[in-house]
């Protein structure tokens, strides 16, 4: 097991390894005294791991209640958020109790936002069950729900008390969902770590899960320590996300987050070549690794459609949008792009 300590407004550990779920109750008791634990999960994850998580918590002395909602991005909504808050109230959850987010990014995001706002803040624990959640959304305290206008437009920065990442839980992931998470893993290589990128290129989908997840979490830890509230260095983690979120929204979330981020990374790298920011070798490397991981690099949406959708992105500041642009593998820059220029920049990458 690897343990990575996160230094933020609330300090906590990320535990990464095989066979950790049975220890959930014991690990939780180190940061939250036994009381009521409200497990929040979805209809895909609960049948697989709900019983084991419940047993681990009850064995450590917790009373367990559970809120299970239909799987899918469409349920990261205001309506579901309010249903969850009312559930917590009806179950008499107090400030001494906690929420357990058992699932992927949707479950983690809505659980964290509920924890941040119910009774003005209660403890929550992330138990990621997807690769994407393990390397990205479960760490760093970004919580949110989607609005009709776009993704993650209502939320809060609120750190968990613990992240318990049992790599065995990834074994039940469908291949396309696992590859979704690989897009975020590749993102870390493009952003910060040429060696990680090279290892991924060598190993493909057979990479060592514990060590790769740990490396991604270490990289995110360093960024969160610098910029917990996403006003500077943390914006770099949005590589591929401005265009990616636009693709997701245009497809009504039929295109998954990982696929959309993969396309977004390829498009912004293509634009960077046209603008003289990076060379063709960087674009070729991005395309090769996306092919290796069976991820898409192109979209059928027009620059105009992507531009209009991107205008709702939360990274827009007045008349500019912060775009993360590669200068090479392992080195990226934050480029403040005028809204008037954004359509041309996107078009250059298509």
Mind telling me the CATH superfamily name of the largest domain?
A: Dehydroquinate synthase-like - alpha domain
Q: What can be said about the biggest beta sheet?
A: 7 strands, mixed
**Quaternary state, please?**
single chain
Taking Cα atoms only, what radius of gyration do you get, to the nearest Å?
20 Å
Number of structural domains: 2
- The total of beta strands comes to 12
Tell me the CATH architecture of the largest domain. Answer: Up-down Bundle
Q: Count every helix, treating DSSP H or I runs of 4 or more residues as helices.
A: 13
- What number is the mean pLDDT? 96
What is the share of helical residues? 40-55%
Q: What is the CATH domain class of the largest domain? A: Mainly Alpha
Q: Which shape, going by the Cα principal axes?
A: globular
Strand content: 15-25%
Uncertain runs: none
Task: Name the strands of the widest sheet in spatial order.
Answer: 1-2-9-6-5-3-4
One letter per element, helices H and strands E, the order comes to EEHEHEHEHEHEEEHHHHHHHEEEH
Distance between the termini: 42 Å
Structural class: alpha/beta
What is the CATH fold-level name of the largest domain?
Answer: Dehydroquinate synthase-like, alpha domain
């Amino acid at each position: 097991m690897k343990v990575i300590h996160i230094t933020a407004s609330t300090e906590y550990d990320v535990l990464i390894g095989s066979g950790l779920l049975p220890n959930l109750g014991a690990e939780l008791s180190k940061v939250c005294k036994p009381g009521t634990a409200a497990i929040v999960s979805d209809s895909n994850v609960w049948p697989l791991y709900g019983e084991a998580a419940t047993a681990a918590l009850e064995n450590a002395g917790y009373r367990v209640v559970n809120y299970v909602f239909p799987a899918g991005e469409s349920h990261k909504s205001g309506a579901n958020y309010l249903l969850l808050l009312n559930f917590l109230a009806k179950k008499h959850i107090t400030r001494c109790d906690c929420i357990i987010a058992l699932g992927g990014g949707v479950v983690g995001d809505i659980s964290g936002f509920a924890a941040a706002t119910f009774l003005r803040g209660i403890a929550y624990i992330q138990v990621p069950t997807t690769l994407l959640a393990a390397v990205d959304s479960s760490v760093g305290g970004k919580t949110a729900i989607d609005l009709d206008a776009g993704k993650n437009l209502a939320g809060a920065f609120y750190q968990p008390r613990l992240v318990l990442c049992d790599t065995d839980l990834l074994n039940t992931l469908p291949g396309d969902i696992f590859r979704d998470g690989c897009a975020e893993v590749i993102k870390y290589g493009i952003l910060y770590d040429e060696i990680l990128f090279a290892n991924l290129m060598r190993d493909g989908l057979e990479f060592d899960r514990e060590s790769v997840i740990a490396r991604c979490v270490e990289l995110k830890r360093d960024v969160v320590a610098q910029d917990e509230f996403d006003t500077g260095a943390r914006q770099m983690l949005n590589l591929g996300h401005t265009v990616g979120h636009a693709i997701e929204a245009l497809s009504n979330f039929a295109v998954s987050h990982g696929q959309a981020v993969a396309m977004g990374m390829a498009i912004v790298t293509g634009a960077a070549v046209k603008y003289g920011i990076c060379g063709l070798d960087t674009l070729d490397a991005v395309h090769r690794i996306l092919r290796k991981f069976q991820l898409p690099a192109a979209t059928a949406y027009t620059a105009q459609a992507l531009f209009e959708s991107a205008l709702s992105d939360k990274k827009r500041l007045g008349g500019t949008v912060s775009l993360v642009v590669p200068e090479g593998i392992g080195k990226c820059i934050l480029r403040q792009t005028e809204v008037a220029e954004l359509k041309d920049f996107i078009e250059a990458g298509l």
